């Protein structure tokens, strides 16, 4: 009868979805009720860390470590994934044995690529139309590109953005802004993905030269 008491525990709270930048840490919590014996963390179906009630965490990789918290109503295991890679994206699962029960969440690892406009300054004459090219290389997923002039957003009809597949699961984007300046202005190309706290930006100063001068 006493051995049966070990079967009465359950997962109280499972992990929640996370979106992080490649190279940073991702953290997931799993709380099980009192009486648990073994807890296994899996990444895309592969076991990456085991926690035993008798001896604590059994870590087999320095990329997957854990911290443990015990309270009156249960035990919480926090899985820490260090130096996250694009390939870590997917299902993160917390599984108990006897009875077998699991909860899962999804990890999205995003890559902050490069962003540039070839020229830092351009000189434009009156009534001259110019195309300004902003290039984003090596992102995951492909970034959302917007343009600003002197701190206000430019209408989407003024630029065209094309996305293409890069190497190693990364994406590129090319945005071409067409405009006929009437004055000197600073143009900013912004690239954004969910994991970035602020969009990355590149700027160009368009110097307007009045032809009557």
Automatic annotation (TrEMBL):
Pfam families for the chain: I-set
GO biological process, one term: cell-cell adhesion
Cited Gene3D superfamilies: Immunoglobulins
The encoding gene: Igsf5
Stored InterPro entries: Ig-like_dom, Ig-like_dom_sf, Ig-like_fold, Ig_I-set, Ig_sub
Membrane-crossing residue ranges in chain numbering: none
Any one cellular-component term (Gene Ontology): bicellular tight junction
Domain of life: Eukaryota
Protein name: IGSF5 protein
Domain Ig-like, chain residue ranges per copy: 9-98, 99-205
